[in-house]
């Protein structure tokens, strides 16, 4: 589904990512753990094609080289992202965005009501939304878009327990997580600092990023348990 090879990213003259290699198979959901400032969000932005980044290396999506492709073409091919800090857009209603992705007005209202956003459809996108409302707005957009690869930037950041459970439920629905592998037809990459979302979403594989590099991989539960026990400093000791 996704393969990142020898990816280096320079932003504002500073190297943020240094030789990142990552592979996500069809139907596989991965979690990328790392402290703040380690480069996790930069990786997602590079995958969706942030035009301000200077990039070397290669990004393949469904077997196609998308490294130099503009963002809108990547989205058309099946990429979807939720941002940690989504932008507010004046003059564009949440309903406008959802109608572009899904023409069924009744279905749109149903999804918005489920996420507690029925009264938000006529509001400007993300303008004046609380932290929890922003997260739910991002989720309902992804639920409407139904991308082949879902990129989730800190979906558990600043979210209370009630909202986190709902967000986890919707992520599982977007990914169609099931104990029956034949139903696992979408892939995901979740980035998180401390892994709270993993109470509700169970990734198949985990990675740890430090200082712009992926330094180890393994079973997500084992990685997060080691991080909780020894901190990310323990990861540094392990690789040095």
What's the CATH C level? Alpha Beta
Number of domains: 1
Along the chain, the helix and strand elements come as EEEHEEHEEHHEHEHEEEH
**Dominant shape:** globular
The CATH homologous superfamily: P-loop containing nucleotide triphosphate hydrolases
| N/C terminus separation | 32 Å
Helices and strands: which structural class?
alpha/beta
CATH topology: Rossmann fold
- From the alpha carbons, calculate the radius of gyration and give it in angstroms: 18 Å
User: How many helices does DSSP assign?
Assistant: 7
Brief synopsis:
The chain is of the alpha/beta class and 240 residues long.
Description:
With 240 residues, the protein is an alpha/beta fold. The chain has one domain: Rossmann fold, CATH 3.40.50.300. It is 35% helix and 29% strand. The strands form three sheets. It has a six-stranded mixed β-sheet with strand order 6-9-10-3-11-12, sandwiched between helices. A hairpin with a 2-residue loop joins strand 4 (54-61) and strand 5. Helix 3 (94-101) packs parallel to helix 5. The protein is globular. Residues 178-183 have low confidence and may be disordered.
């Amino acid at each position: 589904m996704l393969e990142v090879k020898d990816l280096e990213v320079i932003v504002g003259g500073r190297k943020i990512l240094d030789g990142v290699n990552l592979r996500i198979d069809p139907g596989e959901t991965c979690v990328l753990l790392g402290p703040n400032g380690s480069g996790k969000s930069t990786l997602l932005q590079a995958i969706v094609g942030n035009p301000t980044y200077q990039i070397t290396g290669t990004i393949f999506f469904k077997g196609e080289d998308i490294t130099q492709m503009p963002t809108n073409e990547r989205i058309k091919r099946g990429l979807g992202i939720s941002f940690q800090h989504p932008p507010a857009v004046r003059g564009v209603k949440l309903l406008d965005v959802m109608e572009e992705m899904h023409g069924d007005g009744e279905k749109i209202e149903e999804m918005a009501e489920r996420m507690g956003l029925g009264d938000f459809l006529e509001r400007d996108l993300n303008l004046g939304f609380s932290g929890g409302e922003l997260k739910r707005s991002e989720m309902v957009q992804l639920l409407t878009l139904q991308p082949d690869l879902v990129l989730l930037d800190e979906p558990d950041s600043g979210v209370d327990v009630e909202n986190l459970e709902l967000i986890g439920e919707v992520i599982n629905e977007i990914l169609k997580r099931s104990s029956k592998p034949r139903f696992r037809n979408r892939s995901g990459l979740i980035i998180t600092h401390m892994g709270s979302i993993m109470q509700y979403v169970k990734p198949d594989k985990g990675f740890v990023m430090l200082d712009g590099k992926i330094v180890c991989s393994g079973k997500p539960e084992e990685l997060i348990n080691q991080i909780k026990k020894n901190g990310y400093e323990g990861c540094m000791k392990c690789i040095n």
